[in-house]
Design goal:
This protein is mainly α. The protein has one domain. About 60% of the residues lie in helices and about 5% in strands. It has three helices and two strands. Strands 1-2 form a two-stranded antiparallel ribbon. Helix 2 packs antiparallel against helix 3. The longest helix has 27 residues. The protein is elongated and about 55 Å long. The protein starts with 9 loop residues before the first helix and ends in a 17-residue tail after the last helix. About 5% of the residues have low confidence.
Length: about 100
């Protein structure tokens, strides 16, 4: 079994290990899984920044603008979603029938 990357958060380490336990992944899949976990960690970091600072900031002209971390959170979640979909983790298992799950 592959080692869990040490730089991931506790929640992402748990998720990484659960995926490894449930799926038979090749080495190139492990890279995608690691990147997905990193993106989810980054999204959580951005979410905490927005929670701390508020949804908007004020620019130099005094106008309210969306907090920059809002976009970071959205982008990281979308990247993670695409990586997990690429791995096929969003598909239902085949069950008793011995065939791969359908494509998205």
């Amino acid at each position: 079994m592959a080692k869990t990357p040490i730089h991931l958060s506790r929640d992402m380490k748990k998720f990484y290990r659960s995926v490894l336990a449930d799926f038979n992944l090749e080495s190139h899949h492990l890279i995608l899984l690691t990147k997905a976990c990193e993106n989810l960690d980054r999204a959580e970091q951005a979410r905490l920044e927005v929670e701390k600072d508020g949804l908007t900031t004020v620019d130099r002209y005094g106008s309210k603008k969306p907090h920059p971390c809002v976009k970071i959170e959205i982008d990281c979640k979308n990247s993670a979603r695409l990586l997990l979909r690429e791995l096929g983790l969003d598909l239902e298992p085949a069950g008793d029938i011995n065939r791969p799950p359908g494509r998205y």
